[in-house]
Predict the structure.
Amino acid sequence: MIRRLPTGLALGALAVLGASAAAQDAWVIRAETIYTAAGDPIAGGHVRVEKGKIASVGSGPGSGANVLEAAAVTPGMIDLSARIGTTELSVEQSTETAAELSVVEAIDFFSFRWDRELRSGVTAVLVSPYDNDVIGGLAAVVKTGGPPTLEARLVKEAAALRAAIGSQPSAGNRTPRGAPPSSFYFRRPTTRMGVEWVLRKAYWDAIQAAERGEADTDPHVRARHEVLRRTIRGELPVIVDAWATQDIRTAIFLKEEFQIPRLIVDGAAEAWREPELLARAGLGVVLPPHVFTGRTREEAFFAWDCAATVEELGLPLALSAHGARDFGARLDRQAGFAMRGGLPFAAALASVTIHPARMVGVDDRLGSLEVGKDADVLLWNGTPFEATSAVIGVLLNGELVLDPRAAAGQ
Amino acid sequence: MIPTIPRLGLLSLASFLAAQAPAGPVLQVRAREVRVGDGTVIPNGVLVVQDGRIARVGADIPIDERYAFLAHDGVLTAGMIADHSQMGLAGEANEDARSVVPEARILHGFRPAHSAVGKALAAGITAVVIAPTGENLIGGVTAVVKTSGGGVVDGEAHLALSFARAALTAGGSEPGFFFGRAEDPAQTPDGGPEDTESAVSGARYPTSYSGAWRELAARFTDPAGIVAGVARGELPVLIEAWERHEVERATRFSRRFSLRGAVRGAPLAGDEHVLAALRASGLGVILGPFEAGQTHASLAAVAALQQAGVPVAFALTGRENEPEMLRVSAVRAVEAGADPVLVWKALTGDAARLAGVEARIGRLASGLDADFVLWSGDPLDLRSRVEAVYVDGKRAYAREGASR
């Protein structure tokens, strides 16, 4: 890696590595099983990678000079709620509805946590602002590796609109009762009812503004309204933090009242409680990390068959590890836990690859091993998601960032 | 510069007094070593001062016996420049009520007679850049002042911006308990940046990096007042940024709006990616002061930046406000591998350049202000002492017990 070199040499080294990376721009990965997340697994197949993209996938050994071998190969995993690279300074709290603000200018690509995600097999994440606002702003899909610049990492800037229901967005707000208000935190909402009111008012205002015409509106407010209207038109999904039953219900009522085609609930620990309502609404679901006690935030109980239940309803399902520090709680393990709760393997694979990619509209580039897509590829030493299996190799944009030959001691 | 505002530098007392002085050589100094500031060392060199300015520097300058002459058995250098300081401001280095105060002039808060200024002089520092803290998104206009005589080298040196966390958390942006008067609650509940600007106390807009970017981008996209001068490239910026991602953002912003100037902070500027971003931006970096527990990475940043051709200067801000820390910081950078000649430039000529006053101070060259220091030995040897300091050709400090 470049970073071990003395800094003075770094610029020269970059040029040298650039040249050698070009030489290593093509790989053939052979595996006992190729799980493409786009159709049936291929036994005894290969994936060929060229210039950062997938050049071919198929049975047989394939041809090429740089060969890597593994027991299994899958697409890179995608986490829609990784919760890394941002701090509380990612959310603009001078307003409760910052829909027009993009999180991209608030991401810390220098955080060591990116590398941990990458090495555990998560190659792309959705970065959202913190949930201290009812509407926090535009979330972005970024790669977890590469140079620590926005330019190098960004996959999609406005991938979803982030919102939050529950106690979190109102937690910092206060009523002026007993003391004169001394800051903008003296405001609605201070309760769940207030949160719901602010959310509905934001949508109501956006719709009214369109009917009225917005020539005189402040440009920030106009931009805010337009973002909300894009979600109504289905051009942009809304990802709402909602864990407990009452908050998932609120999300569903909002979706139905304003006819928001693409609404994803994040958290959603109690998605299993009212499956009919969930199915009626056609929500996307991002589940939190499994906990052995089942207790999560907002007193929501996260049942181990929750993922299986959502899958049976035919809803788009994604799993998340919330940027787990613990090796045994990262995204591959979450897929394994969901399988323990009854989720079939193919669905578990889809829930960490192609489903999250589709939910935020990056499936043209990410989420499956198909010709022309980004060469974000994982190499496993066994069947993925088994307790005895691990990611031993990672290619990101066709570049080998975790070498499986090192793991094998070659 | 902003054309409608008179250059405060021209009004300085020192220049006024210098103009009244009689013409002719007033002082000739011969030193065992004269260090010009570009690496040139003149053994038994002579400096001739006339009208408060340097008239000549060289080896074979005959001494004119009609005028004052001083022989110094030690090293003569230009005075050092601290490129970021809040000395003499009595804690009033940022306007709290609002985060964006481009028209604020730090010079109006500067007290030349403050004891800290005298201490800086005694440490061999002849000029400092006084700047707002990073707690304001746009903190106002910096100034370059002399440490003796009340002289103002430049009353509008940079516009101070901040990409630092401090700009977003000042005034208690995070929910908690607030003291202070109420702002108008009717304006606050759910407005955009316009109404939150009215905040008198308590939390302040913006509270996020994204909000900060939007606000600054808006100010530079449609610039007015002093920001317009900055956008036209007439005035440099001094951008406070500490964490690596903040520095990267600052360089990106600077490139987008074609700004020039320097980043203040950036302790990890030696990081390969931060370094590349800084190089591409053309910004300089103002580092330090280095505290006792400073990590090697930040000490080594000086060498890394200088090798990459990024201009460096040193700051005298923070908890360690002891003026000696300026020289100590430089010495520690040398210990960590930096080139002593380049480090000395960072204390003098490069510091002047980053402050936009290289035509006035920072080197021993004819025509520049006669701000110089007589050292007992090599100034980058901490055993060496300041024997005397001259500002605008006048002796401003002499060590007690020194030969002169």
The first strand of chain B starts at residue 25 and ends at 35. Confidence is low (pLDDT under 50) at residues 1-21, 173-201 of chain B.
